[in-house]
# Entry
Amino acid sequence: MRKRNKLLAMLLCTVMTAVLAGCSSSSETPGGSGDNNADKTKTEDSFDKGSGAAASGVKGVIDGLDVPSLEGRTIGVAVLGTDHEFDLKAYQGQIDRIEELGGKAVAVDGERNDQKHISDIENMITQKPDAIIKQLGDADVYEPVMKKISDAGIPLFTVDLVSQYSICNSTSDNYLVGEELARNMYEDLGGKGRIAVFNGFYGVRVCGIRYDMMKYVAKDYPNIEFIEPELQDVITGAAEDARKKTLNLLTKEKEIDAIWLAWDTPCVGVAQACKEAGRDDIKIYAVDGSSTVLELVADPESAMYGDMAQNPYQIGQAAVDECARYLAGEEVPSTVYSAPVYVNKVNWENAVKELGIEIGKE
# Structure
């Protein structure tokens, strides 16, 4: 009986071994499931891990990491205006990056008219793009229409515009911008002097931050005095308006050591006014790094002394990078920062090389 049971057990083992061998053989047959798995692996290699979006082969301008493709996506780009060099370059950075990633850009230019721009954005919402990037503007003015974008279920990204409805804002570190510009200005003046301030756009968040940091750093320089009342710069005809206001200021105030501005387009007029008045002793400081103003920084005869140069093209590109990642299902930060470069009459040659730009000079 025991011998019979032993023979039965051996027979069962033989049968099971044969069955398992057959299964293994069929799974390795050419054209079978083994090759299907290999094909699947090859296909998955062409996608960003964890995103399900096709890889673009493009690296992020800020972090150097892979950026997913925007193929088949439509991205709305809403810019308040393109007459200012910063705005134009940031806008162009977005358009070029969307196309580089295989997407389609639909753009609107508000031409510095808030009501027109709001209407343009409302119309864009009805077109239901995959995402909208809103560039610059007064946060209070545009918050209602940005809420409409969010309520419509359209992902919103911003450039130099903080909003509770923005998934990610691409900008320079304006706290650093304001602090570094102010510190250099106060040190250049030897820690004492009278400064005139243009402050027409405090409601634009980035300008407000730069202004606040300028005043905050001044607490460490008790011998710095700010001339009152502050001057109000404008958008339309910024340079000529600033020239007239500066000439008027120079007539009233004989003791002025420096003039500060939150952006640099008006500086062309401010520098011209100082030249007309023979006040080459005054130093002008501003933010942005537009090519015309950097040429004035490089000019030893100009009162334009220091400019915190931003990289607007990169800022625009970075907004698109984060948009692409978000649409691919990736986590994105609430803010991405591009590094500014301080340019003055001492370091301008090296600084513009660092920025990767060229400026004309005699």
